Amino acid sequence: DLQICQHRAPTCCTKKMEESYQAAVRRERTQSIQALNFELKYMIVGHITAFQEAFESLLRFAENRTSSLFETAYRPMAKEAAEPVKELFTDISLYILGAETTVESAVLRFFDSLFPLVYSRLINPGITDLSEDYTECLRLTRQDINPFGHYSKNMVTELSKSLWASRMLSQALSLGIEVINTTEHAALTKECSRALVKMQYCPHCQGLTLIRPCVGYCLNVMRGCLASVSELDAQWRKYISTLEYLTNEMAVSHDLEIALSGIWNSINEAILHAQLNGPQLSATVDKVCGQPKQQEGNLSSASIVPVKAVTEVQTFVMAHASLNNKRREFINYMKRSRTFYASVAERLCDGDLVMRDSSTCWNGEDVV
């Protein structure tokens, strides 16, 4: 009553053994593809971590630089500005990781939070009544009177352009892992599991436990079984080309590094612009939000202090070099995996599965 290992000679197999063999080939096929995938997956996961560490290092550098701007040049509002600064860089980090947010919303939310502080600590430092209603009115007014001029919009444009490539790379790496995981768990067809049993276990039914499949026979069976996986070849090659393009673009332009390291300068320019236009802003705000309580002998507006570049360049250079090296290593490895899905059958038929250095092998029917 054998269904797969039918043979003219007497056999030591039963139908139940054939069913066990089918379970075994399914398990072995999954394990062998997992073993093939392991190195590729390990490299991608490793680079996701490495890229993330390099991104975080650049973000920390940019955040520290921005915080030190407030501490050195705008001390009256440094303490209160700490939270909006932290939120801005958290939002940027989440955006790179693929969160459903935009650079524009993050930057404009930051400037919304910044305006009440600039207005009450620098432009009109005599204000004592900074109630919730008055603060909210200042936040909403920011969108209409544009106190920071073109600097806030410029910051959105520069960051959007540079962070987009980093976000795409982060998503592309996650997609790579998803593809690999999917191929590991692709179901075997009934025909495939029968063909694998015939190739690997039917010789056992004749007591031939040491004989192995012929190379050509193994390749035919594996190619038939892995037809759906090998169909990924064209898309995988395209995927590698896209990764190559993306990493080259990022390496050539250094947009990410330049944009992040320039955030403090954009904020500084925006605040200077608001201070220079202080009287006009005060007149407009008074009309819209009313006049808040002032201390007696109204304090003069805080003096404008232009800020020179903060010297933390060493940290930045190291993070920048680390990111560049990671990109180069990663893309060189991925280029070598370009034919990965075209050669899965060949890799599975390599090594211990087939008989290479012997004059006899199993052809599916007999020993030849």
Automatic annotation (TrEMBL):
GO terms for cellular component: cell surface; extracellular region; plasma membrane; side of membrane. The keyword Membrane applies. Belongs to the glypican family. Keywords: Cell membrane, Glycoprotein, GPI-anchor, Heparan sulfate, Lipoprotein, Membrane, Proteoglycan, Signal. It holds the Pfam family Glypican. Signal peptide: none annotated. This is GPC5 protein. Cell surface proteoglycan. It comes from Scytalopus superciliaris. The keyword Nucleotide-binding does not apply. It is found in: Cell membrane. PROSITE patterns: GLYPICAN. InterPro entries: Glypican, Glypican_CS. One of its GO terms (biological process) is cell migration. It is a lipid-anchor; GPI-anchor.
